[in-house]
Amino acid sequence: MNNRLVNFPNATFGVLLLGCLLSNSESSRAQERSGGLTAVAGLKVGHFTLSGRPTGCTVVLAEDGAVGGVDVRGGSPGTRETDLLDPVNMIQRVHGVVLSGGSAFGLDAASGVVRYLDERHVGYAIGDVRVPIVVSAVIYDLGVGDSKIRPGPECGYRAANRADRTLPAEGNVGSGAGATVGKLRGMARAMKGGVGTASITLSSGLTVAAIVTVNAVGDIIDPETGSVIAGVRTPDGHGLSDARTLLRSDFSSEPRGGENTTIGVVATNATLTQSEATKVAQMAQDGLARTIYPAHTPADGDTMFSLATGSYSAPASISTIGALAADMVAQAIVRAVSAADGIPGIPSARDINDGR
Asked: What is the distance, to the nearest Å, from the Cα of residue 343 to the centroid of all Cα atoms in its chain?
């Protein structure tokens, strides 16, 4: 497989254009995301996008270890090592999280991250050996392009090698390259999803952030306006049908399971136990419910990881962290579809809103 990085259209221009149209409240929201997930000290993010078709992986590294939690809500999840994040089990800290395209095949990308960390002697110490703890979740994007082209260990390794603390790219990159949304009427009326990130830092220094790969069966709704910004298109392909209306009609077709899924990571610099990190992951799922309709369906594999790096040592309210995590997930989801570029046959939110 040729794993050369694809130069898909840069989302920067779209983000700048969107910024020109933002209201004052939306401008404040955009400013809050400064740094995205990497605003949390101790975390790095790297994307790798395959050249053969739109797909790839996104890696979050916590090389000093971070307390991890997870919450799985969708009915068709594809995950790796999530049992380790159960608070009753021995392992408390993880060193990497992989979000990947490729469905179950994409779980192989985590092996590349394990290799990358092993070469740097990062991992859980067992005697003289260090075993990297890398968890993962995948989306189904095999319906976009050649399904035989999937992220594998090399994708994970290269994404890890690219990981740094700069602002992560958004839209059609890494795990978001082949993501789509609005599939209640099938792929013929779907729109482009992607990856998005957001963060907030309070005056106290507490930071909460999220990175999300949006590949939902449902529509994407801006929670500030209640308007659908991407989702099921009208039969002519030029407008939005609104899944809320479709599901209240005589529509009874069930989307095929396992072909969708929204996955992500929320993170904080607070010091949390694994039980607390798990609660934050649970609360963060509220961000999906605010922005995706319907969410957590049998056809989705919605999974949210949480990480706590512990660089902020002051006491912090779990309720506050969880509420902010849900806010950042919602913002990241909106940003993911707003930054995405259309691909042949699958328009983006900007394409529809611009009347193309």
From this structure: 19
